[in-house]
Design goal:
The chain is of the alpha+beta class. It is built from four helices and seven strands.
Length: about 220
């Protein structure tokens, strides 16, 4: 009798447990939570409409260039048009024409001993300072003039030649070496067809020099 009572009591307890389990399974809160979990799982794996829908516009970012910067419009070179103040409109100084060695009217033919001949071109071929004149002459024919001078100076050979370099440069006549005999030193100065030769020789207490010039008047 006692055994049957325990069996019946055990069956009744099992039935109560089963009924409780069925009741919990049908509660509203549990169904909603499980439904949300399922829906969330499906929506996380669903494809994006914007990337798979036919006809949807496709947008893309510009390809990055090496260094992380995107391509942009090419940059044009810039050239300055700035005018330096004072540079525009500044005229160059006018050059002064060099004087001609000789010009018309040419002097008449003349010569002298111990002095400069009448009409001798003293501005073009002056005697050096501290000179003693030996002979001098001028000879003209048409547009041509010849000039000669012999003299002795207390200046050295170098000083005499430097004196005539400076004097003749004012007329645009510059020197080159010229052949000379007996230890003499000679220079020839030229400008176009005009020419002057100066020959120097060392003597006691100075320099003996000889000048010969040939010129053509241009006016």
């Amino acid at each position: 009798m006692r055994s049957r009572t325990w069996i019946i009591a055990g069956l009744a307890a099992a039935a109560v447990i089963v009924a409780a389990a069925v009741t919990v399974d049908h509660l509203p809160g549990r169904s909603t939570a499980e439904g949300s979990t399922t829906t969330s799982s499906h929506s996380s794996t669903a494809p994006s409409p914007s990337s798979n829908t036919p006809g949807a516009p496709v947008t893309s970012s510009p390809a990055p260039t090496p260094g992380g910067e995107s391509d942009g419009p090419p940059q044009s070179k810039r050239f300055t048009t700035e005018v330096i103040p004072g540079a525009a409109g500044k005229a160059l100084p006018k050059s002064t024409a060099l004087p001609e060695p000789v010009s018309n009217p040419l002097p008449k033919t003349a010569s002298a001993v111990g002095a400069l001949a009448k009409g001798y071109p003293t501005s073009l071929l002056p005697a050096t300072p501290h000179s003693s004149i030996g002979t001098s002459s001028v000879a003209s024919q048409g547009q041509h003039l010849q000039v000669s001078l012999t003299a002795t100076s207390t200046m050295t050979v170098t000083e005499v030649l430097a004196f005539y370099r400076t004097t003749l440069a004012k007329y645009g006549m510059y020197d080159t070496a010229s052949p000379a005999l007996g230890g003499a030193t000679a220079l020839t100065f030229k400008r176009g067809v005009d020419a002057v030769t100066i020959t120097t020789s060392p003597v006691t207490d100075g320099t003996q020099y000889v000048i010969y010039g040939a010129f053509t008047a241009k006016n």
